Inverse folding.
């Protein structure tokens, strides 16, 4: 693997930049305010895509890569590094989801935070994946470290369906799902330019995720190779000190 990004990754970066710019124009200029929420509805064009990217894409990839690592037939360092890189991106964007949601809640509900079921389960998810990243740093042999992290990743993902269904299982202040509700895929509750803006935002952030993942994985791979080289140098030095050829 080279230290330079491939042409495909550079094209992916440009596509994500263009679609993000179009989303911003659509969200701030083209789409109207909501009848009930006014201009605060524009926060949803960030809130929904960041939630999609974090919970369903990033953590979904982390879980799939962890399963593939644990399965002996597909076990590879590639899957472990992919899982870690994807989780880091997911934690970043889930943090943005909580921040944007807090701002929206202050405007709509009059408070920055409330222990609503959707908010609470999302905050728990954020903490779980912070824990996963912490587990990846606990000293151990590479195999033990990777296997332990994969198990934690799969366990943490169990909270994602709970977050998704929280507005259905409990009475909450949070509105029902607008875009990712299974019952509304064929009958969405958002239409016209607002629906297209939200859809474009999801595409833009998905492209951004792919671009970030490519770069973060390459960095993780280089760090891994550097650590292996440092370990080999240390072993060679110890052998030299002991007079072992």
């Amino acid at each position: 693997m080279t230290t330079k990004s491939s042409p495909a990754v550079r094209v992916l970066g440009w596509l994500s930049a263009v679609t993000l710019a179009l989303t911003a124009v659509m969200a701030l200029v083209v789409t109207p305010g909501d009848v009930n929420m006014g201009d605060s509805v524009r926060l949803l064009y960030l809130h929904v895509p960041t939630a999609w990217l974090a919970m369903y894409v990033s953590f979904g990839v982390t879980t799939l890569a962890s399963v593939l690592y644990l399965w002996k037939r597909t076990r590879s360092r590639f899957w472990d590094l992919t899982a870690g890189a994807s989780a880091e991106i997911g934690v970043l964007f889930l943090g943005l989801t909580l921040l944007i949601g807090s701002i929206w809640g202050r405007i709509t509900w009059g408070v920055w935070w409330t222990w609503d079921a959707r908010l609470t389960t999302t905050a728990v998810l954020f903490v779980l994946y912070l824990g996963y990243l912490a587990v990846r740093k606990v000293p151990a042999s590479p195999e033990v470290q990777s296997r332990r992290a994969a198990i934690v990743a799969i366990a943490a993902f169990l909270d994602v369906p709970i977050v998704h269904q929280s507005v259905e299982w409990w009475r909450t202040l949070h509105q029902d799902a607008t875009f990712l509700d299974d019952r509304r895929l064929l009958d969405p509750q958002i239409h016209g330019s607002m629906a297209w803006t939200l859809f474009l935002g999801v595409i833009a952030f998905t492209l951004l995720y792919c671009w970030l993942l490519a770069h973060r994985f390459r960095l993780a791979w280089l760090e891994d190779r550097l650590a292996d080289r440092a370990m080999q140098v240390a072993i060679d030095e110890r052998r030299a000190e002991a007079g072992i050829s």
Confidence is low (pLDDT under 50) at residues 184-188. Residues 14-31+40-174+191-244 form a domain with the Four Helix Bundle (Hemerythrin (Met), subunit A) fold (CATH 1.20.120). Residues 106 and 228 are 49 Å apart (CA to CA). The two ends are 31 Å apart (CA to CA).
